[in-house]
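**User:**
Everyone, produce one record:

**Assistant:**
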Amino acid sequence: MRWMRRIPLSLKFAALTVAYMAAAAALALLLQEWLTIWSAGVVAVALLLPLLAYHVRRAFAPMNSLFRSLGGTVASYRDGDFSFGLSWDGKDELGELVAAHNELGDALREQRLGLVQRELLLDTMVQNTPVAMLLLEPEGRIVFGNLAARKLLGEGRRIEGHRFDEILALAPASLRDAFARGGDGLFAVGTEDDEELYHLARRHFRLNGRRHELLLLRQLTTELRRQEVQTWKKVIRVISHELNNSLAPIASLAHSGAELLRRGQPERLPEALATIEERARHLEGFIRGYARFAKLPAPRAEPTHWPRFIAQLRTQVDFALEGDEIDGHARFDSAQLEQALLNLLKNAHESGTPPSEVKLSLRRLPDAWRIEVLDRGSGMNEAVLANALLPFYSTKRNGTGLGLALAREIAEAHGGRIALLNRDGGGLCVSMVLPD
């Protein structure tokens, strides 16, 4: 019956139908001698019907076997087993169906293999990450805990299957307090001499139709110490540079003054003393700037009239007002905001911008005020934009790196934010948003 698989289904049905009708007609002609025409036809059909059923069954037996195989492979796919394939010699519609089915199996097999590989990679990353990860069921039982979580909470032992409150009862008091407060937060573990700082993050999501909680405990001590060391190194470099720039000429001029007195030439002393005074005042201003940044008090917000505030600002630095002048009030610490804007406007002048192009823009937002300081200098590249708001970062030869950092501290202390962006056509825009 192999040759029948190569015949299309439509031809098989047509051939069987024609053969059956021809056989029935021939048999009816033979029986007409003894029976009427109608009776001969009925007898012929009745005699040939079992033979037709036999041939139909034999003709379609391979297809029935194929359909059973298809059902079995589909059940295997449903159970996650993609190792099965089918074979069909025919070039008919069933051959196309088998080919499409095998292609589906190959695609599912490749996807399953890729998924298994990704799961292995993800499990390796999760198990070896320094962040302690815990997954809790709604009843508070631990479903998963990685190696860091076992080390932190279970002394290295497996903690899956235990109730989290039982594990937490054995943890340090600061960790218990952090969970009792709810939400995200920071807490310290250990003594003052050997203290470790952690950040707790809690997230909820649904898994298999049930609400689960994911706990993340990240150790910050090493990172904070590294950042602290880098910051202190930078502070020391900046302070050393400024002190050397001022103390070296002061020492040299003091020595020159002593030599002038010894030689009896006091007429040149005023020049040396004036230079010493100038360097000493510069050093005083430098130290005062650091002290102001380190001891910035909490803002004392009071109602302030914008026109009066802008007029006071104009007495200290030149700028043009962009747009229409706004006649309104806002609540902020006028002394702190004045200091922040003075730093930004002086930076704009130092960028090489013509004085007439240094502008201040003030706009009313639905629930905030936007203040922008605009210049037409050279702007900033991406690296400078990413670091310009950090304390002690400066591209100027004698810069302290505190002007923009202080403006950021003041904006954030008021609940606002500050951003830097390059302007079309050249220049920089420093945008500060202050909420009502």
Observations:
- Residues 225-294 form one domain.
- The chain is about 55% helix and 15% strand.
